[in-house]
Amino acid sequence: QGVNKSGNIWSGSGGTYGISATRSRMSFVTDAPKFAVAWAYPQAIRLWIDDVPVWAGNKKLGSGSGLCGATFDFTTTTGRKRRKITIETSGGAAFGGVYVDTGSQIEKPSALNKIRVICIGDSFHIGGNNFPADVSRTWLARAGEKLGWTDVVDSGIGGTGFATAGSYVKYRDRLQTDLFGNMSSMAATFTANSAVQIGTYEEPDLVIFAGTVNDITVAAAAAAEAVLCMADVRAVWPSKPVIVHGVAQVPQNAVGTAATCEKAIFDALAALNDPNLYLVPISDETRIPTAWFKG
Predict the structure, then answer these.
(1) What is the enclosing helix (H) or strand (E) of 226?
(2) Residue 96, CA distances (Å) to 41, 99, 156, 207 in order
(3) I want to staple 25 with a disulfide (CB 3.0 to 4.6 A). Which of 53, 64, 88, 244 is the partner?
(4) Contact present, 53 and 46 (Cβ < 8 Å)
């Protein structure tokens, strides 16, 4: 039997968090004395067993191209017992599933209060451009651990924003694939290559949109797009909690540009008077007496 999308943290960079997920971290519990993990294309991974790191650094597994993976065998050591397995990928390939024999069990780690969060963001979220490249070290992953978010989906694509597409697509143009759950492209890709079972879409409990430095030169357009993003979200989920955080000032941009962009976006969103929309300022000191984060 196989289980896909089984774990805690997914991080994507291509418009969908399935086929284009470049880094992911998943946890599962199994009593199997032997199991196999599959993914598309060779890559380096990290492994924890019962939260104890087995490989301190990245270990590259697989060769050639296409679907590949590795087998973990405890038959001659500890044998059959329940173990929590955590695997983190760091290469450019999507997670392809976990397989155990028909006499073994595999399940998600238990959680008293499961909270699923999807964040639409930029490179600050996925990692890159001097930010952590390992998914477990990104701020979103760490926030999830601290706040008890048991399932975090990171739709971070570098160079994008509310109004900025960069080399990919702007936020609103990937809501259908990344937020509202169009998994068809992911399913088609994997079923064409293997018998991996694709996980069913799970609705998030919380949605996060990221203010971004990628929009600082198009603040007015970003504000308009932010309102349109909220309209799309409210058409599907009228009362779901949504957080929009502000824009960080970075050294390479003129001082004040982040605050100007953030203010434009927040002014437009505040005018919606949405009781379930929460604005978290970063650079605009007109909304907080002392900015708590500066570049």
Answers:
(1) helix 219-236
(2) 10, 10, 20, 26
(3) 88
(4) yes
The model scores a pTM over 0.90? no
In this predicted structure, what is the pLDDT of residue 135?
53
Per-residue pLDDT tens for 105-153?
Answer: 888 776 556 788 888 988 887 665 444 445 556 777 778 777 878 777 7
Q: At what angle do helices 219-236 and 257-270 cross, to 10 degrees?
A: 40
* Identity of the amino acid at 117: V
Are 7 and 28 a contacting pair, CB within 8 Å?
A: yes
Rounded Cα gap, residues 17 and 186, in angstroms: 9
What is the spatial distance between Cα 249 and Cα 80, in angstroms, rounded to a whole number?
A: 52
Residue 195 CA to residue 197 CA, distance in Å, equals: 6
Q: Using an 8 Å Cβ cutoff, are 241 and 203 in contact?
A: no
What's the residue count for the chain?
A: 295
